[in-house]
Write a structure and sequence with these properties.
The chain has 449 residues and is an alpha/beta fold. Helix content is 52%, strand content 11%. The chain contains 19 helices and nine strands. Strands 4-5-6-3-7 form a five-stranded parallel beta sheet, sandwiched between helices. A hairpin with a 5-residue loop joins strand 8 and strand 9. Helix 12 runs parallel beside helix 14, helix 13 packs parallel to helix 15 and helix 18 crosses helix 19.
Amino acid sequence: CMLELDLALHSRSLAAKQQQQQQQHAQLPQRQQQQQPLIIPVFYDEPKQIVQLDYIVEHWKGPGIQRVAANHRQLVNPERWAANVSAMEKKLQAIRRHTLEASKDQDYQLARRVVAAAVKAMPAQLHLDGDEVFGFEQQEAELTAQLAVPDPDCLGLWLHGIGGCGKTTLATLLYNRLLQAGNFQHHAFMELKHDESIGCQHLTSVLNQLGATGFNQNNTAKQLLGLLSKYVSNKAALIVVDNVWIKGQLDDLLPRSFGAGSRVIITSRSSSLPDSQWWRKVNQQLLPHAVVTLSQEASIHLLRTSANLDPDFQMPTGDLCDAEGELVAACKGLPLALQLSGALLYSNNRNVPQPVLKWKEALAALQRGRSAVDSEGKLKSILYTTFNALDPAQQHIFLDVATVLQGQPKELALAVWGAWHGEDACSLFEGMERRNLLATGSEGWLQMH
């Protein structure tokens, strides 16, 4: 049958002309008498306009069918032709949309390169929410004063403490404070996963942040470490390495020596890393500091702000006030525990707390996970309870990060979630951030506790 058909393409403006329609109709009988293929006209619009599908169907159900020989009329199927044209239009729209997105992506990549170049010319302080740092002022002031004293025997700090005690927050505060002083033109902040091995991507990130050049993707990790050692040997550099866990991480990431005036800040759950070459080389030059947990006043402040309550709100006396006091005491000054407990008590009104039953439920969740030996068990209990409080879409997002997307760029994750959740993807992720279940690192990588 296809051998008996011709496809004639006409623009809408051409087809709209009376003369063209008459000419088309006049040719049909002549072609039929000569047993030439049947002509099927398809009308298309200018780019970004919609094909007149209704006209195709209307024409071939009306005057068009009358001009077709009886033995050919079974070939006339205007609904199918309209569907085919519609499908083709959708494909064309998809191609145009893909081209537009690619163009936007190129613009975005260009913008990122411009911003990256500008960032190198200014102190790139890391963002911290004001409520998040409340209660760390004294530790920050004391440690900043220690680092400000010129001492060739002092390279920096080793901040240690249990998970969730605020090591990263304190390190970030010190990093920002030292940058504000204007003594470091070369600086880098590297966040590690607890069990990851150091590779080229980590060294490349540090070199880029410091402003180094002369390396590429073909360099090995050993070559990059050599370039890093040479680069910082005669410069005052500020480097923070957050969440060191295994001994090889520092050996493979940091040089054995630094230029005069350099400062290195390490955070770890361990007070030392035995059998580490880097540690044995510099451990006498790092001042150990056990991060102090929050005071009762700071704990109440953080708990309330995490619950979206006014920190100066006067809690009513009675069961509600007692429940708050018990919950603060159970958190033992750990910022993460306070933030997660507050997330369970999130209120839409800053002056109206959740009912006392909710506070008791949060306290029970904390106590069920508490162990005299494992002080972090309660955090896992809170995470589990908070996870169950999420809606199904947020649970899927949380599991995506836990299994696949942790350490991946936030933009990539939002693009993936956008395919499933549409415009809600961003608000769903922000809801997870508010509950302190997910976070974005300094380089835009997804993190979770």
